[in-house]
Write a structure and sequence with these properties.
Jelly Rolls; AlkB-like; binds fe (ii) ion; alpha+beta; about 200 residues; Alkylated DNA repair dioxygenase AlkB; binds 2-oxoglutaric acid; 3 helices; four-stranded antiparallel β-sheet
C-alpha cells in the first residue's frame, strides 16, 4: 500500500491509490471542467508565462503566496473534494495526520512542459509540511536532489493514479523538479497542502 522510498526524511508512495478506470475518468474530467490558468512569473524584470498550466483550489482562508503574488484559491470542485477525503482517510490509516485545506493542480500538456527545482517551503505551510501528490496521466519522474549534497539525486516515477507523500523534513532537506523529457502525453498532478491561516498572507 504505502511503500517507503526514503526513511529520513520520509517519502512514501502508494502506486495505485486509484484504479486505472478511476484515474482515467478523473484525468479527463479535470482536463475538461477546470479553468486552467497560465500565469506569468516575473524574472529579472521580465514576465514569463510558466511552462505548464495550473490552478489553486481550497478553503477561502487558504491564501497562498507564489512568486511574490498572493492567490485566493478557487472553491473546491466536487471530484477533488472526494479525492481529498479519500486520500486523507488512507493517510490516517497509515498514522499520518493531514488536514489539507488547499491543492495546487498542475497540468503538463506533454513532456516539454515542466516545473523547475524548488522546495515547497513557503512560510504559510509551516516548518515541516506534509504534502501529498496525486498523479494522473503520463508517467513521469519527479527528480529529487539534496540541498546539502547528503547523497545522490534520484528519480521517483509517478504512475497514473499514484500517491506520493512528502513527509516532514522533505522540503527542508531536498528540492524536487519535474524536468522536461521526450515523453508524449498529458499529465495532471494535484499537490495537497495545509496552509496555516495565521501565516497566510492577508493581501
Ligand atoms: O507535478 C508534480 O508532480 C510536481 C508538482 C510540485 O512539485 C508542486 O506542485 O509543488
Ligand atoms: Fe513541489
Amino acid at each position: 500500500m504505502l511503500e517507503t522510498l526514503l526513511d529520513d526524511p520520509p517519502l512514501w508512495l502508494a502506486p495505485a491509490l486509484l484504479s486505472a478506470d478511476e484515474a482515467d475518468r478523473l484525468l479527463h474530467h479535470l482536463d475538461r471542467v477546470l479553468a486552467w490558468e497560465r500565469p506569468t512569473l516575473r524574472l529579472y524584470g521580465r514576465e514569463h508565462p510558466i511552462p505548464r498550466r495550473q490552478l489553486w483550489m481550497g478553503d477561502p482562508e487558504a491564501r497562498y503566496r507564489y512568486s511574490g503574488r498572493v492567490f485566493a484559491p478557487s472553491p473546491w470542485e466536487p471530484a477533488i473534494s472526494a479525492l481529498r477525503r479519500r486520500l486523507e482517510a488512507r493517510l490516517a490509516d497509515a498514522g499520518i495526520a493531514t488536514g489539507f485545506n488547499s491543492v495546487l493542480l498542475n497540468r503538463y500538456a506533454d513532456g516539454e512542459e515542466r516545473m523547475g527545482w524548488h522546495s515547497d517551503d513557503e512560510l504559510e505551510l509551516g516548518p515541516d509540511p506534509v504534502i501529498a501528490a496525486v498523479s494522473l496521466g503520463a508517467e513521469r519522474p519527479l527528480r529529487f536532489r539534496w540541498r546539502h549534497r547528503e547523497g545522490p539525486a534520484f528519480n521517483v516515477w509517478l504512475p497514473h493514479g499514484s500517491l506520493l507523500v512528502m513527509g516532514p523534513g522533505v522540503q527542508a532537506r531536498l528540492q524536487h523538479a519535474l524536468l522536461p523529457r521526450r515523453l508524449p502525453g498529458l499529465r495532471i498532478s494535484l499537490t495537497f497542502r495545509r496552509v496555516l491561516a495565521e501565516r497566510s498572507p492577508d493581501r
